[in-house]
Amino acid sequence: MSKNPVVIALLTTVLFAGTLGVLIAVAGFGIIRVFEEMMEALGVLPVRWGENNVIVLLELAGALSVPAVLWFSVWFYRKALAAERVLTAQEAAADAKSSSSPAV
């Protein structure tokens, strides 16, 4: 595994963004579906509109989740990179300390 903090931060950010994207899209789809059902009940949308337009609802959920996922990805990358740089510096300091101390 690479000891490069940038690579580690990118990898963890990709994993974080993927997980977050799925969670937000699924939750968003549920919320959109509830509103769609309310609009059907109020007569704004025709009956069974949601069942006939699932792809539209999925695209809407995906499009609405993109800004949140992008913002959190940038935020997470900055935090992960800062943490990895601190950990790398601490690891280097520990290695230098252990190599400079005499063997007992």
Features:
0% strand, 86% helix, 3 helices, mainly alpha
Brief digest:
The protein is mostly helical and 104 residues long. It contains 3 helices and no strands. Helices cover 86% and strands 0% of the residues.
The main β sheet shows up as: none
Helix content: over 70%
- Multimerization status: single chain
| Unreliable residue stretches | none
Distance between the termini: 31 Å
Strands, helices and their partners?
Blueprint: H1 5-42, H2 49-52, H3 54-100
Helix pairs in contact: 1-3
Provide a descriptive summary of the structure in words:
- The protein has helices at residues 5-42, 49-52, 54-100.
- With 104 residues, it is an all-alpha fold.
- The chain has one domain.
- Helix 1 (5-42) runs antiparallel to helix 3.
- The longest helix has 47 residues, at 54-100.
- The two termini are 31 Å apart.
- The model has no long low-confidence stretch (mean pLDDT 92).
